């Protein structure tokens, strides 16, 4: 078996969306060569699936992803539903029928009732909330049905006994465990995940998994229990379990062939728990990971915060991919006259109503004639008329004659070539021309844009060049998105407006004008939401006001995990947070989340960090919300005018500018130095990996212009 570079363990849950990180929400942990990362909490299945797609789409290396759900049902049931024994077909079947929205609401009980109707007997699905009276879904366990209560793998777990306890049946939808509900919602999510990953992913034990870059498998999280308490870090048991399972499998792969095919023939139709038979190797590896915190002893019980960088922090590309997956265009399209649509984003392409140019015309001032063939000079009788732009020559030009023609004039009938004024010599009624190539100095009809062809793609902002083209091809009305309203809110008790007599404990609110200006430059309507103090209620009120008026909110300050970091606390408790510890400098802390459904970018308070994070994350995301394609800054390589050494695990954006063809960087890195922002004209982007850069080595330079400035 090819080694895995990382193992990701997922504690799936079937609850209807919960914002507080507790049990019964989704927990995910990742282990890699450097150890096991912090457990992440996801309030909804949707957010977790998006994160997984993002993590697995752009990751390098081979990854094993394990879920504590059943990948199938007892043999025979899938066939009765889809006609096939293939659980992967069942996943797609469920995905097509289960609605499970971003808010966490789903109709799994209704689907189970429909399934019961398709399957023989009263069940097999049972269990529902007391208030839900759903005909076709018994509240209590049904015995003696057509399908067994257990799959082969559960029989193996029960036979093994041990500390893992008794598994639940996939037919049980509600009450403690609710494995059936988890399985239904997971099948839909797994189907989505497989579709997103395409051929990169194999599902164990149904598919050949020995080489695939991503392998999906099911686990029994209780197998991680002997080590979980040591890895819980103050979180719920689920957080300890996913960390222990990820670390345990990561280590156990050195000892055993985790992907060996199960002996039980039912496994291919039902699925099988990965790790059965390897429990002691998993336990040993998980315990070793628990004991290997780098600052063991000094920060007891808090080893989450003493992990190698890059493990517990989200890489920039992963955060960007997750953001990209979650930001779609908002706002209902409207039709506008082109003259009123400047700066708007197209919902539909602009198709040329007529060709540009509409007819063949002269590209220069000179003489038009039909080319007689041959080279050198030739004399032509002069036609008495003249063709000019907007004043076509009626009647045409007889073969052998030449006519005065001006730039932009439609070619008269009988003319196929234009000779430059400078190459002509008029003598009385004749003109002597130095013959150019046949067809020279002529613009063909439609050579720019043919009639009926797409002139501008959907998603294009109607900037100056786009307006020119739309007009040239005769677009009268266009379908566009409304202008995106971007709120900007500063937070912090210390903030004040600049005033000559301000005391030194006041910080002038530099971020607000900066962020308002950025939002405006990117083509959005910048909405000034003012300042909020470090007070939970005031902040909530400001955020509510912003969410009511805006399509997205940029806040700055209060985004870390400190006692004064109210925005962070508020978002965790009452909003939803998608990503918030991003492996980038400057940058941390950064919140990407939603408040009352409105996307929120909780930028750091530091102006340099706020600016950098706004350019890297907010700009493409706001563009996507506005209906534009995802914008990636166009950088290029130049020699460095500096030397630098950095460790692996974090991307760095250095304030930089080009001088003499080399990138120089601002002398001090301290992100409090606002002067460095005004000094810089772009960033040097240093990669996530370790680097020992010498002067003259190539570095990637990103001019601020490539971020739309
Ligand atoms: P915070 O993220 O709230 O801990 O703030 C980090 C640093 O940035 C502190 O020194 C704050 O005073 C400063 N800061 C926060 N917001 C702003 C702002 N709007 N303008 C300038 N500095 C700020
Ligand atoms: Mg603050």
UniProtKB/TrEMBL annotation:
SUPFAM superfamilies xref list: MoeA C-terminal domain-like, MoeA N-terminal region -like, Molybdenum cofactor biosynthesis proteins
EC number annotated for this UniProt entry: 2.10.1.1
An MF annotation (GO) of this entry: molybdopterin molybdotransferase activity
Catalysis: reaction(s): adenylyl-molybdopterin + molybdate = Mo-molybdopterin + AMP + H(+)
EC class of the enzyme, as a word: transferase
InterPro entries with a match to the protein in the record: MoaB/Mog-like_dom_sf, MoaB/Mog_dom, MoeA-like, MoeA_C_domain_IV, MoeA_C_domain_IV_sf, MoeA_linker/N, MoeA_linker/N_sf
Cofactor: Mg(2+)
Keyword Lyase listed: no
Example GO biological process: Mo-molybdopterin cofactor biosynthetic process
Pathway entry: Cofactor biosynthesis; molybdopterin biosynthesis
Pfam families linked: MoCF_biosynth (PF00994), MoeA_C (PF03454), MoeA_N (PF03453)
The keyword Methyltransferase belongs to this UniProt entry's keyword annotation: no
Cellular component, GO annotation: cytosol
Taxonomy, superkingdom: Bacteria
Domain MoaB/Mog: 487-624
This protein's UniProt keywords: Magnesium, Metal-binding, Molybdenum, Molybdenum cofactor biosynthesis, Transferase
Family: Belongs to the MoeA family.
Function: Catalyzes the insertion of molybdate into adenylated molybdopterin with the concomitant release of AMP.
Name this protein carries in UniProt: Molybdopterin molybdenumtransferase
Native source species: Hasllibacter halocynthiae
Highest classification ranks of the organism: Bacteria, Pseudomonadati, Pseudomonadota, Alphaproteobacteria, Rhodobacterales
